[in-house]
Amino acid sequence: MTAHTLSDTGVMLGRSMRHITRSLDTIITVTIMPIGFMLLFVFVFGGAIRAGTDHYVNYLMPGILLIAIASGISYTAFRLFNDLKGGIFERFHSMPIARSSVLWGHVLTSLVSNLVSVAIIIGVGFAIGFRSSAGVLDWLSVVGILVLFTLALTWIAVIAGLSASSPDGATAFSYPIIFLPFVSSAFVPTDTMPGPVRAFAENQPVTSIVNALRALLQGQPVGHDIWIALAWCVGILLAAYAAAMVIYRRKFA
């Protein structure tokens, strides 16, 4: 992006962040559900689940973080849809600003708000027994994967926000994404699952991302999972970005 585009994107980011700070219930709602899942699985189901670890919350944490992000991006689609139907895009396009900055403002707002939610959830995790052996580089790698995952899902949210015909339609796309961690290694090892379910779980993106995050957080060798996780994140990000920009240009050609 050029300096002009970066400057315009900064203005759009500030606008979207002001909307977030005026309705903190968005972040609270997105954060409470994953925390509720974490408390439920740790204190209710945790004793009955054999995940090969003495502290189930350590096993559980990566999946909870992905659920939080998947929940959070639905609000991006909702805000984008409202701006679209409210004529905000036309108003901004009549001004001398970079057109892409309007979308990037929403995308970066999603990134910031989701990272805040993730930080809160990790804090609660530490309070209930989560512990990490990760070093500085491991934590930076965790943050990098979460950023890529958030951007990938956010651009999918942009597609939904630009294409939906109702607010419910704009947010409904996130439900299957939220469900994916439940059919992965996020809550139980995949080798405990029936054959067809196991085959799906081991070959969908969430499992490799969860496995990579779990290994990094526990300071263990990551193996090939990190490369598969990065390939999934980058591949989805590039495909969703390209599709979103095509839809955006067609709408405002």
Automatic annotation (TrEMBL):
Record keyword Kinase present: no
Transmembrane segments: 24-47, 59-81, 102-128, 140-162, 169-188, 226-248
Listed GO MF terms: ABC-type transporter activity
Domain of life: Bacteria
Entry membrane topology: Multi-pass membrane protein
Biological processes per GO annotation: response to antibiotic
Keyword Membrane on entry: yes
PROSITE patterns the UniProt entry points to: ABC_TM2
Pfam family, one: ABC2_membrane
GO cellular component, one term: ATP-binding cassette (ABC) transporter complex
Cell location: Cell membrane; Membrane
Coiled coil stretches, renumbered: none
Record key words, sorted: Antibiotic resistance, Cell membrane, Membrane, Transmembrane, Transmembrane helix, Transport
Residue span(s) of domain ABC transmembrane type-2: 25-251
InterPro entries per UniProt: ABC2_TM, ABC2_TM_bact-type, ABC_2_transport, Nod_factor_ABC_transporter
Family: Belongs to the ABC-2 integral membrane protein family.
Name this protein carries in UniProt: Transport permease protein
Organism this protein belongs to: Actinocatenispora sera
